[in-house]
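Run: sequence + FE2/S2 (inorganic) cluster -> complex structure.
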Amino acid sequence: MTKIATPHIPELLARHRDGYALEQAFYLSDAIFAKDVENIFMQEWQLAGHISEVPETGDYFLFDLLNESIIITRDTTGDIRAHANVCRHRGSRVCINPRGNTKRFTCPYHAWAYNLDGSLFNARQLDPAIDRSQLALKPVAVQVFHGLIFVSLADRPHSFARVKAELDPLLKPFGLARTKIAHRASYPVRANWKLLVENYNECYHCTSAHPEFARSHATHMVAERVAPFNQALASRSQAAGITPAYIDLIGSARPDGAPDIAYNRYSLFENYVTGSEDGKPLAPLLGNLTTYDSGASDVYIGILNPMLIYCDHAVIYRFIPVDKDHSLQEIIWLVKEDAVEGRDYDRARLTWLWDVTTHADKHIIEKNQQGINSRYYQPGPFVEMEAYAKRFVDSYLSTLETKEKA
Ligand code: FES
Ligand SMILES: [Fe+2]
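>> structure
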């Protein structure tokens, strides 16, 4: 791997040319990766999973991110809890299995045991003078929104209130809380996490890289050519019970302290009711929908968790950093909770589009990283269709600048 000297961040920031891609150091430097982890991954709300993964008391799963591991569980009152998976004795991981059901979490080292609410249940031979209430598992901020479980590892998590206010009415018709995970896949990508986010945020590459996607989705076309499709969509959406709306609170438009929020329902091309290979339905209609509007909702709850909601399934993306040169692209497919595989949906058909698209993305993103590693790399200009990738870069740089000054 290409090695570079530790960059001087104020100089890098001052040198950035507006409207151009980022310099090599942003993708190759260990020091910048460490800042990304602190400034972004330890601050932002991130999707950990879905409530259908923990339907019963004592059900749990782990949300692992870099050095951190968080236990997500349903406690005896039915609430979803999140706790750091770090023993309050001498720090061992407490929960080892990635998912399961338990009455208590017992540390594998010296068997301290914790209740589902994180409180210490038992610690053999612990001096009775020591206050056990101070030795609970550390709580982690958690929010459940339309069945989606988000966690924030920040000391002072950003408010989630605006996400709820803006998106609650728009997501309602899709009944995401009454869905289940039909499939989940993780695609390792040999590239810095920012290249995954940049790639997701522009469809300039869609015509050349994604012929399968470009057949049914209009997002790769310039705005004027897309407009007639979307005008026709509005009345179809209303008839199906979906509110047409456009919200853009991302990057510099994002209100102070709130995660990036976006919502846009756009039309698929003729003869496509959903994101399928043949245009035909893939699964039972979600939530309260009565018919297909042949649209898809582009939704952002934070820049790290974009999702696409069709009438009969939803696709959620997670961008997960492994180290500065490696990332995971995780995808979660949701279908209605009572849909039965083999009868109501076929897993291969359901996952076809985003599986083939993500394989193609993995390929182009890895080639992008390889070029950036070269001594000949020089940041080039964004075009109009890359406006959202540019906004990500701008917002990333402004966060970095703010943190550097703090
Ligand atoms: S480290 Fe967990 S019981 Fe000792
Ligand atoms: Fe792509």
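>> summary
The first strand starts at residue 46 and ends at 50. The mean pLDDT is 94.
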